Amino acid sequence: MVFPSLFNGGGVNLILFFQYYYNSKDKILILSKGNDEFYFGNKEQPIKYTKSQIINCTSLSPERGILMEFALVLLEIENGTKLVIPNIMVDENLLSNKLSSIPVVYKNKYSFLKIRFK
């Protein structure tokens, strides 16, 4: 993922970028629009999920400002699992396109800074 204004916000953007990178570097997301199954997790043993198990999809991203390049997609699965997918792995608009049967709630908030990656 390219962050064209990575350095426009000074150190805050750089810190967030490295936090996104550090928390995503050993993870993988395998997702296609035509397949109901997808995989997310560690590169060595990703966990298999199905799109039909997703009960909630929320896209968090600031509407404007120096942090607008950083977004997260939160997927809530039926069994209570919550997947946090940063846009360094996949663009949030492309992800919502691949999950076209699932309604996406868009929130323009900075609250994603409080979410811990797992």
Morphology call: globular
| CATH topological fold name | PH-domain like
CA(first)-CA(last) distance: 20 Å
Number of helices: 2
Radius of gyration, rounded?
A: 14 Å
CATH architecture: Roll
Number of strands: 7
SSE run = HEEEEEEHE
Give a quick account of the main beta sheet: strands, pairing sense, barrel closure.
Answer: 4 strands, mixed
* Portion of residues within helices: 10-25%
Give a quick precis of the structure.
This protein has 118 residues and is an alpha+beta fold. It is built from two helices and seven strands. It has a single domain, classed as PH-domain like, CATH 2.30.29.
Word description of this protein:
- With 118 residues, the chain is of the alpha+beta class.
- The chain has a single domain (11-114), classed as Roll (PH-domain like).
- It has two helices and seven strands, in the order αββββββαβ.
- It has a four-stranded mixed β-sheet with strand order 6-5-4-7, covered by helices on one side.
- The chain is globular.
